[in-house]
Each structure stands twice: as C-alpha cells, then as structure tokens.
Amino acid sequence: MSIANVRTGAERTTPQALFRVSPPTRAGEVNRMTMDLGAPEPHGRTAALGVLLDDCLGFTMYERRGDRAGLVSADLSVDFVRPTGWTGLRLTAEGRLETRGEDGAMGSVRVFDAAGELVATGTAWGNFIDGVEQSRDDRPRAPSDESVPTSTTPLEAIGGTLERTDRGARLTVPPNRSLANALGVMHGGVQACAYDLAGNAAAAGTAGTFDTSSLRINFFRTVPLDRPAVFEAEVLRAGRRVVVTRVTCTDADGRECGVATVTCRRAAPGDPVRPADAGILGERDQAPS
C-alpha cells in the first residue's frame, strides 16, 4: 500500500533519494519524472523501476484527487517491454490519468530510456481517502546536491537480505525509516522493488538467469517499518523459458500486507552473463569464475 505524497527540499533519506528519482513536473496532462540508474542487481535488473513507476502513477492520480485528502494505491501492474539493453543511465516516466471516479482513479505510465526507446508500461488503481494528515517528517536532511552513489544496487538501497528456500526465495527487509512514505509506512515502490527481487531470485533458482517480464501487485494493508517485513516467493510453474512466481509480503505479526505475481523469462542470448546465484548466497555457493 502506498500513499502519494509531495516532498520538497533535500531528501537523502527517502525512497526517492535512495533511488535517485526526481521531483515530478507536469506538462499539460502528462506528469513526468526521471530516475538515474544505479548498479544492476544480479536478480531483478528491473527492480529499481518500482519506485519510479509507483511515484509517477501516484502523483498523477494524487494531483486529480479534488477535495479528497489523499490517495492509497490499491494495485500496480507493470510490463517490462525491454528489461535489458537500455541506452544511457537515465530513465524517464510519463504518467497520465485514464479515469477518475468518486472514490478513486486509474493512471497509466510509460518509461523510456535515454534514446527514447520504450522500457516499460504500467497501470495502477488508487482509492481516495479522507481524514488523513501527513505526519511531521523529522528524519535528518542532507544538502540537496548529495546523492546516493550510483554503485548502490536496489537490494543495498533497501537494506534487504535475500536467501534461497526450498520453495523459492525469501527477502527480509529490516526496520528502516528511509523506506517510508509521508505517513511513515513502507513506500509502495519499495515494495514493488522487493517483490521483483524475491520473485526473480525464486525463478533463478529453477536453473539459469531470468529477466522479470511482468509484475502484478495487490496491496492489502500498510507495511510497518518498526519491525522486519518478509517477502516470501514460491515458484508456481517453471518452464524452459518462463517461470511464474507468487510473492507474499507479511509483517512481523504474520499478517499479509500484499501479494504479487511475478513472471520471468529466460534471459535472451547475448545478454550480459550473470552468476546464477550472485548476491543471494554465500561465496562458496556462487558459480565459479
């Protein structure tokens, strides 16, 4: 679950700063945001896009909320048209409002690389809410020109621990206020990143290297940040070219906070070779160099 919010000033300790996502700009009916890519993740090279997609969609719907107090993301769907081979280190997201009703809205987004090639498309539904206020953000601030190093991977950015399980993979995200939205709970884009990482790692465990091709998330409840959150991935079906995984997010009390279906396709010939278990198991378990 995610609540769109507007922030100003230096934000090193926010998801937007951790993933180098710019503030939104609006040109007519289009909301535009950019993200500077960091180091690729061995599992889930598309994982970093979660924050960019969720933010762009959230702001697009939030700006059209009228007199309603806020917006809560209900679901997020993403298709990675081209999960690898991007040109340049900056991606641009363009969001549009598709429909608005009394109680919610639906938006769409398209992401392009530096050459203008389409990278991903996405949609989200959001529910309007009332009676909420943005809590005071007392997290330490840093100079606006201070950024997170581009050598940081998505897994490092969220501080997670990824491990293999008998059924797939498990990603544990420790308490970390840097992952919060304006209401102090886990940002929806950070959750999307975690779902992608866990689902892709489970797919890789079936043998080989895979790229995430689609991500479908239903947000049930907010994810607290005062205790660890767990993203448990299990393989639903493993074929030669396609692996489908289901990832469930639970809080420290075992309550389900959301669920995602992650579809992964075997990496195409000519893609950079990655050790099958790099970044998920210990050195003794990694593929030999």
From TrEMBL:
Regions that span the bilayer: none
All copies of the Acyl-CoA thioesterase-like C-terminal domain together span 31-123
Q: Which domain of life is it from?
A: Bacteria
Citing just one GO molecular function, the answer is:
hydrolase activity
**Gene3D superfamilies, sorted:** Hotdog Thioesterase
Task: Report the InterPro entries cross-referenced here.
Answer: ACOT13, ACOT8-like_C, HotDog_dom_sf, Thioestr_dom
All residue ranges annotated as the Thioesterase domain in the record: 184-257
Q: Pfam families of this UniProt entry?
A: 4HBT, 4HBT_3C
List every stretch annotated Disordered: 133-161
Record EC number = 3.1.2.-
Composition bias of kind Basic and acidic residues appears in 133-144
Which keywords does UniProt give here?
A: Hydrolase
Is Hydrolase included in the keywords of this UniProt record?
yes
Of which family is this protein a member? Belongs to the thioesterase PaaI family.
- This chain belongs to which protein, by name? PaaI family thioesterase
Q: Which organism is it from?
A: Rhodococcus daqingensis
